[in-house]
């Protein structure tokens, strides 16, 4: 023992004094003059070279007796101790690189001592410290999409599964076999069964994640319909809406018989579906919203699972075509990084868009149907791309580019009315319907505000991520505030597309995403209205997404509204929406942002 620590051998370094602190393990080489560069050789960042944080340790193992190497960079290593047999234990941790701080790389620290009892004692002490790290999952359900990304789902799971084994996390792995497999499995779980899990992980793309999201929320999220402007026709007044809130909070959403429900996001004969450029068959998924006049539900309240809550989390191990959710929430499209975020129990809140379809076509009956989206909801160009791609499935992933080009060249616009809820924090840049032929950036007419990009420990999102579970009274109070003095702003005309970004939607083709400064948990949607304009200008607008630092939302024909809710009406017979890459036919919808509705195994992109 020395200065409160104990001398151990660290593989590749030599003798070090090791001591346990409140937040980690401190290391002090006994011969720093011999090992000045050794710590960098085991891929530790300089600022972490003398400490291993418990929050960065995902597993500890006792090893068999074996060789421990002395310093690698010196010929004058301690004589006779360069390669000696010792009892050993290993700490599995993570490290980061300066160039790519969002990428997490597994690393090992192998310690040795001549006394077996000493090694076991250190192992037990360190395990106790790691077990005191809260929020780490113990039981997970994992859905693996076998065909997404040309079979990357299975390969990626085989790569990261050993990490979960080392961390002693129990995983129930389900390789999906058909469309709606994950949805049906989760929708049919009892609340008692769901409470036995710490979370659900999707090994696939954003389409599989959307299926899991809807399977969990369909019967468990207690919510009222989104607010609607006067004259919309489905609620006569805000008083009716408030009555709906009171009733809706007491009963969960009704779900259809799972035997008659299909979900398109996981078809056994196609790639996984992704936002923006995706494909799917017509949904078949119907999640009717609760009847506002329905009597309160009864049952065992002790086992009731509701959302939002502060314990259940969703995870994604990216294996899809674009992986926009992962790129927006972690900054990297790396399966190992995502797996380590899950194992270490990182948690952040994520906004979800609740989409209520009132009518599927102008002549259809009013039948409220609820869906949820985590990244994007788009109409017009975005919906037509995924529908068009169905005709070219034989092309594989290339069909997305081909379909996008075909839809772009058709240059179709759609007559529609959109009403969005103006809030005190809404910062809208608008253009008149008659002033869309020019390309003058909006910043020349409006003072350009500084963009605040969502990052790790984002102060904008922190309030939601640390607030914990909201009570029913808090949810009702928040909804009533929307209704106190709502100001609805109408926009109508011909649109090339109507889209709502929940998050930035970054991907490899759009490095800044659709909205660079969209936040992960601020309770807002970014409504993008692209009015009809000449084809060359539309092409100019689209190409602005392909490079970092440009501003594709600065054109006169582009409206960008930051809002909490909006309503859409179209008289088009085949109105198609794209919800996280899934087709959703609807000509009249209402959409609202549900702040921090779910928790994700993530911590935000690193700076």
Task: Report on this structure.
This protein has 607 residues and is an alpha+beta fold. 23% of the residues lie in helices and 28% in strands. The chain is built from 14 helices and 22 strands. The strands form two sheets. It has a 15-stranded mixed beta sheet that branches. A seven-stranded antiparallel beta sheet has the order 4-3-2-1-7-6-5, covered by helices on one side. The longest helix is centred in the N-terminal third of the chain and has 19 residues, at 148-166. The radius of gyration is 27 Å and the shape is elongated. The model is unreliable at 37-48, 73-81, 235-262, 264-299 and 429-447 (pLDDT under 50).
Number of helices, where a helix is a run of at least 4 consecutive DSSP H or I residues: 14
In terms of structural class, how would the helical and strand content be classed?
alpha+beta
Give the terminus-to-terminus CA distance.
Answer: 40 Å
Coarse shape: elongated
> Could you tell me the mean pLDDT?
79
Fraction of residues in β-strands? 25-35%
The main β sheet shows up as:
15 strands, mixed
SS elements, strand count: 22
Radius of gyration: 27 Å
Instruction: Give the helix proportion (percent range).
Output: 10-25%
Unreliable runs, pLDDT <50, ≥5 residues? 37-48, 73-81, 235-262, 264-299, 429-447
């Amino acid at each position: 023992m020395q200065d409160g620590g104990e001398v151990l051998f660290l593989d590749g370094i030599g003798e070090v004094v090791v001591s346990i602190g409140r937040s980690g393990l401190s290391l002090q080489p006994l011969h720093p003059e011999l090992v000045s560069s050794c710590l960098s050789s085991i891929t530790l960042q300089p600022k972490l070279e003398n400490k291993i944080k418990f929050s960065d340790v995902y597993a500890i193992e006792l090893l068999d007796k074996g060789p421990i190497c002395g310093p690698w960079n010196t010929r004058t290593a301690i004589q006779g101790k360069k390669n000696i047999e010792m009892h050993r234990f290993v700490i599995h941790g993570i490290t980061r690189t300066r160039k790519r701080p969002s990428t997490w790389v597994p690393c090992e620290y192998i310690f040795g001592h001549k006394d077996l009892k000493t090694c076991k004692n250190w192992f037990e002490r360190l395990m106790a410290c790691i077990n005191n790290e809260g929020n780490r999952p113990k039981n997970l359900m994992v859905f693996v999409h076998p065909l997404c990304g040309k079979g990357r789902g299975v390969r990626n799971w085989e790569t990261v599964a050993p990490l979960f084994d080392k961390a002693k996390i129990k995983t129930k792995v389900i390789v999906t076999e058909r469309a709606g497999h994950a949805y049906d499995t989760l929708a049919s779980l009892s609340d008692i069964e769901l409470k036995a899990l710490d979370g659900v992980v999707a090994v696939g793309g954003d389409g599989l994640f959307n299926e899991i999201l809807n399977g969990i929320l369909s019967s468990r999220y207690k919510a009222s319909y989104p607010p609607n402007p006067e004259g919309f026709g489905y609620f006569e007044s805000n008083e009716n809406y408030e009555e709906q809130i009171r009733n809706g909070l007491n009963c969960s959403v009704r779900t259809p018989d799972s035997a008659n429900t299909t979900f398109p996001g996981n078809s056994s004969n196609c790639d996984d579906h992704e936002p923006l450029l995706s494909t799917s068959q017509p949904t078949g998924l119907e999640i009717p919203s609760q009847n506002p006049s329905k009597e309160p539900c009864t049952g065992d309240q002790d086992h009731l699972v509701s959302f939002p809550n502060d314990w259940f989390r969703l995870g994604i191990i990216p294996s899809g075509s674009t992986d926009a959710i992962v790129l927006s929430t972690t900054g990297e499209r790396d399966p190992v990084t995502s797996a380590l975020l899950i194992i270490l129990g990182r948690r952040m809140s994520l906004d979800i868009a609740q989409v209520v379809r009132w009518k599927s076509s102008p002549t259809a009956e009013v039948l409220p149907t609820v869906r949820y989206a985590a990244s994007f909801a788009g109409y017009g160009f975005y919906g037509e791309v995924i529908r068009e791609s169905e005709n070219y499935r034989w092309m594989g992933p290339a069909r997305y580019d081909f379909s996008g080009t075909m839809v772009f060249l058709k240059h179709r616009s759609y007559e529609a009315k959109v009403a969005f809820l103006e809030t005190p924090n809404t910062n809208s840049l608008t253009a008149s319907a008659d002033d869309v032929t020019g390309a003058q950036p909006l910043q020349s007419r409006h003072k350009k505000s500084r963009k605040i990009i969502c990052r790790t420990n984002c102060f904008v999102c922190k309030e939601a991520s640390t607030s914990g579970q909201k009570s029913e009274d808090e949810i009702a109070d928040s909804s009533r505030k929307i209704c106190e003095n709502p100001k609805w702003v109408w926009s109508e005309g011909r649109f090339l597309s109507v889209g709502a970004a929940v998050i930035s939607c970054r991907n490899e083709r759009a490095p800044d995403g659709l909205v660079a400064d969209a936040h992960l948990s601020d309770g807002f949607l970014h409504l993008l209205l692209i009015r009809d304009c000449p084809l060359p200008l539309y092409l100019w607008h689209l190409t602005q997404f392909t490079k970092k630092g440009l501003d594709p939302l600065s054109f006169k024909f582009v409206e960008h509204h930051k809002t909490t809710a909006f309503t859409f009406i179209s008289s088009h017979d085949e109105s198609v929406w794209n919800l996280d890459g899934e087709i959703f036919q609807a000509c009249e919808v209402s959409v609202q942002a549900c702040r921090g509705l779910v928790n994700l195994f993530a911590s935000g992109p690193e700076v």
